[in-house]
Structures are given as structure tokens and as C-alpha cells.
């Protein structure tokens, strides 16, 4: 390393900020501080105990390791034996049922047929980006394309058979909206959905909790350098040298405290940037970056976790997919329809289930009382399982990522009108013409292939930490010409 090591401030203590600090500290840069707005680290990773008798954690945030090949999250979890209890509480539960609002179970062959068609159509969607061919309609969406093409494929069936297949297909689209982090899959750009790179391998959960990965990364970071309850009010960058700042960046917190550093890595969520970017930076961010922040999308995704005194699922049942008739839903009547965005309930432990939903209905759910959420969910379960007198849950836990002022959403997606170029522009450090930029940007929304994922967030934190390390690392003469190519391949 070159003499005169830099000072670094990291705004945000999620996995992007933690991974950046971890890499910097392990590389020998020790003047590193994390400013976290809330009372805990983790950001949109949040593992909780539902009950003292349940070994497996419930996740309020990140839930899955998405693929195993070249996935740094899987590598950390596997090397530290975090996956050994996987399926420990699932027992013989393997059955998944698809049920209508009348409690009728859908034939397995119909579900498999729709799933196969759905998978083929998603491959067609992804091909527009991957093969670089124009979409059939300008500014087309994934949802519009999928519905058009699926409609053609089910024309041959009778009205009843077509309707049943449409129910299954709509349930898959609700899942896709939750997976993509949007209100509706009609918002997602058909032209760019193929930019997301799915890593090979199955999707794992982490029984001790996703936060266990963070705990491993935090071991290298001195506890006193992680400052909780420090929401940032203003970031002064590209300032003239003075006795106060010595040309450094000044980060002012809401309590008036000021911190100075040579470099600042901003890891706040896209939702927070949408809400605050215009007032957060002085001077203001370039208009092109602000426009990209506006164009990119982030939606509300949430969970309802219900703990009962005893199991309510049959002994072999793993999950139930809810086939709502979306043609009968009045989206303006949230009180009687919010729960129709819950597309499934899945068992977490024998007496604990979790329901997933997204969009405006999820944001509405965040405003309800726990008693109301419990009552609505019990009514759903009685309806779809054809069971009477399901008891009230003894505990209700629900997420609030949409209304949380420090997240303003769950994770990012590329909406109609945006492209991967917006992600790349958001990730561009500032000043853009400087060999030693002061402001860097990390977080899942800044990764053009792995947006919306924890491994994407982790890699972007490491990307920006490596950017700083490269500024202060002596290169041998023979390395100078090849350094750019090496950097480009580092985090692909």
C-alpha cells in the first residue's frame, strides 16, 4: 500500500456497507467508519426469533441464497456451516397444493402444464435483452407480453379449463411481482428483464438466520467503528480546501455531528435516494444521475408471519398456493382486497407459516393493526383449506419496508422507460472526471446483473472498497496496461 492511507465513511450498515468495511479493514485501511441510521446493522437483512422453542429463524428481509455457483453468500454460509440445519424442521412436509377461493384443489397436471408454459415465456422475455432483439411493442412490459402470449396458448381450451389455467398463471405473475419487487409485473421493462443474471443452483435458506452472514463479515470491523442511530442529513463533497475540511468530504448527521473523510461510500436504498437525493448532497448530484434514480424502480414487498399454538397445516403439507380470481378484484377497495395479493402461505416451522405479498396492497397491510391482519389471514386460511374455527394466531409479525423511512421499499427493478444504463449511471463515482473520486455508490440497485439480491449488494460494497484500494496500491510497471481489464472482470 502507498503511504498516507485514506479515511473512509460508509453511509449505511447493510450488507453492502458491511462488506465494504470488511474488505477495507482486512486490506489495512483502518480509518473506516459506518454511519447507520437505525438501531441495528443489516439493512434489509433482518432475522428474528419467532419463539424460543423454534430453532430456525424467521426472516423479515432477505430470505434466500439465490443460486450457489459463484455466489459469495453461499460460500460464506457453506464454509461457516450455516446450512447444516436446512430442512431440520420441515420433516416429511413436501406437498404443495394449489387451491381456488372455493377450497378446490387444482389438478397437478394443470399446474405443471402452466408452469412449463410460464417458464418458456419467461425465457422468451429474457431473450429480448440477451439476444438484443427489439420488443414487439415499444415500451412493452413483461406482464403485457406474458398475458398476450399466454392467452394465445390457452385459446384451444374450453371456458372452464381456460379459466382454471388463467388462475394458476395469475398466481405465478403475483409471485413474479414479489420476486421482482414491483407493484405489478406490468411495470417491468420487457427490454431489460434479461439483464438479471440467475446464478445456477438451488435457492437455500439459512436456518440460523441471514444475519449470521453479516455477523461473520463484521468480525473484522471494530465495534466502535459502527455508529448506530446516526441518520445522515447532508453530504458536502467536492468542496474547496479550507481549514475545516482540508478538501475532504463532510458528512453531517441529523444530530448535528460532523464526520470528515477522503472517501464516502453511499449504500442507502434506492427508495431513500428517490426520497432524499435532491436534498442530501451539496453540491447536488448531476442531473443525469438524478434522472436515473427517478427512472429506476423499487417496490414494496412484505411478509406476514403467523404463529399458532398448534399446527394448522396437515402433517405432509409444505405450502398452499392461493388462486385468487383477479378479474373479480376491485383494486380501489383495499379493505376487502389487500389480502388477495398474498399468493401463498408456506410453513416455516410446524406451527409457523409465512405469507408473501407485494405492491400497494402490501403498503396498505403495513398500516393495519395486528388484530386486523390476523383476522383477515385466518379468514383466508379457512376459505382455502376448507377448515372451520382455525384459532387466532398467538403472534403476528409483519414487515414494514415500504413505510420505513430508511428503506422506502424492498428491492429494485428496471421499469418500463429505464434500462441497465441507469443502473450503471447510478453506480458511477463522483466527481466523474477524478482519478480519486470522493463519493461512491453501492447497494443492490447499483449492480446491473444482480440487482435486487444480497449477493449483488455484497459485491457492490466490495467493488467500491476495491476501487479505493486500487487508488492507494502500488502497481508494478507491467501491471499498468492490464489493470483496467483486470478490474472489469473482478466482479462480473
Would you write up a description of this structure?
The protein is α/β, with parallel strands linked by helices and 492 residues long. Helix content is 34%, strand content 17%. It is built from 14 helices and 21 strands. It has helices at residues 15-26, 72-79, 108-130, 142-153, 159-180, 211-218, 270-280, 287-295, 334-337, 360-366, 370-385, 420-427, 454-471, 483-490, and strands at residues 8-11, 32-35, 47-48, 58-59, 65-66, 95-100, 203-204, 226-227, 232-236, 249-253, 258-261, 263-266, 281-282, 297-299, 301-307, 317-323, 344-349, 352-358, 395-398, 411-413, 439-441. The strands form six sheets. The protein has a six-stranded mixed sheet, sandwiched between helices. Strands 8-2-1-12-21 form a five-stranded parallel sheet, with helices on one face. A four-stranded mixed sheet has the order 11-10-9-13. A hairpin with a 2-residue loop joins strand 17 and strand 18. The chain is globular, with a radius of gyration of 24 Å. Residues 480-492 have low confidence and may be disordered.
Amino acid at each position: 500500500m502507498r503511504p498516507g492511507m485514506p479515511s473512509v465513511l460508509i453511509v449505511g450498515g447493510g450488507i453492502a456497507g458491511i462488506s465494504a468495511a470488511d474488505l477495507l479493514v482486512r486490506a489495512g485501511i483502518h480509518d473506516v467508519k459506518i454511519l447507520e441510521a437505525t438501531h441495528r446493522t443489516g439493512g434489509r437483512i433482518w432475522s428474528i426469533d419467532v419463539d424460543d422453542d423454534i430453532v430456525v429463524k424467521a426472516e423479515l428481509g432477505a430470505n434466500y441464497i439465490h443460486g450457489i455457483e459463484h455466489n459469495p453468500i453461499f460460500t460464506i454460509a457453506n464454509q461457516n456451516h450455516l446450512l447444516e440445519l436446512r430442512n431440520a424442521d420441515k420433516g416429511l412436509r413436501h406437498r404443495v397444493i394449489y387451491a381456488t377461493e372455493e377450497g378446490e384443489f387444482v389438478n397437478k397436471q394443470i399446474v405443471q402444464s402452466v408452469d412449463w408454459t410460464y417458464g418458456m415465456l419467461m425465457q422468451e422475455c429474457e431473450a429480448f435483452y440477451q439476444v438484443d432483439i427489439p420488443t414487439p411493442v415499444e415500451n412493452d412490459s413483461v406482464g403485457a407480453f406474458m398475458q398476450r402470449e399466454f392467452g394465445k396458448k390457452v385459446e384451444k381450451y374450453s371456458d372452464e379449463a381456460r379459466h382454471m389455467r388463467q388462475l394458476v398463471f395469475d398466481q405465478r405473475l403475483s409471485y413474479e411481482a414479489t420476486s421482482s419487487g414491483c407493484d405489478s409485473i406490468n411495470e417491468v421493462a420487457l427490454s431489460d428483464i434479461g439483464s438479471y443474471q440467475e446464478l445456477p443452483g438451488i435457492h437455500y435458506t439459512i436456518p440460523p438466520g441471514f444475519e449470521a452472514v453479516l455477523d461473520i463479515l463484521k468480525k473484522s470491523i471494530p465495534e466502535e467503528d459502527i455508529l448506530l442511530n446516526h441518520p445522515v442529513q447532508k453530504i458536502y463533497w467536492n468542496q474547496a480546501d479550507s481549514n475545516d475540511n482540508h478538501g475532504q468530504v463532510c458528512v453531517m448527521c441529523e444530530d448535528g455531528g460532523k464526520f470528515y473523510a477522503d472517501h464516502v461510500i453511499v449504500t442507502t436504498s434506492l427508495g431513500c435516494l428517490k426520497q432524499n437525493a435532491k436534498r442530501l448532497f451539496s453540491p447536488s448530484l448531476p442531473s443525469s444521475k438524478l434522472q436515473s434514480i427517478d427512472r429506476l424502480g423499487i417496490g414494496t414487498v412484505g411478509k406476514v408471519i403467523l404463529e399458532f399454538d398448534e399446527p394448522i397445516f396437515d402433517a405432509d403439507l409444505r405450502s398452499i398456493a392461493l388462486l385468487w380470481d383477479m378479474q373479480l378484484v376491485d383494486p380501489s377497495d383495499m379493505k376487502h382486497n389487500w389480502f388477495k395479493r398474498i399468493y401463498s402461505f408456506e410453513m416455516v416451522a410446524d406451527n409457523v407459516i409465512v405469507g408473501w405479498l407485494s405492491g400497494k396492497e402490501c403498503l396498505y397491510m403495513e398500516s393495519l393493526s395486528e388484530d386486523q391482519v390476523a383476522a383477515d389471514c385466518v379468514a383466508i386460511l379457512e376459505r382455502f383449506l376448507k377448515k372451520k374455527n382455525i384459532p387466532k394466531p398467538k403472534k403476528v409479525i409483519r414487515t414494514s419496508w415500504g413505510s420505513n423511512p430508511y428503506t422506502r421499499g424492498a428491492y429494485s427493478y428496471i421499469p418500463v422507460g429505464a434500462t441497465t444504463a441507469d443502473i450503471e449511471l447510478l453506480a458511477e463515482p463522483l466527481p466523474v472526471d477524478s482519478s480519486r473520486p470522493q463519493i461512491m455508490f453501492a447497494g443492490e440497485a447499483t449492480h446491473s446483473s444482480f440487482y435486487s439480491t444480497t449477493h449483488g449488494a455484497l459485491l457492490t460494497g466490495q467493488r467500491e472498497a476495491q476501487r479505493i484500494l486500487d487508488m492507494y496500491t502500488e502497481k508494478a510497471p507491467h501491471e499498468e496496461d492490464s489493470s483496467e481489464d483486470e478490474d472489469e472482470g473482478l466482479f462480473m
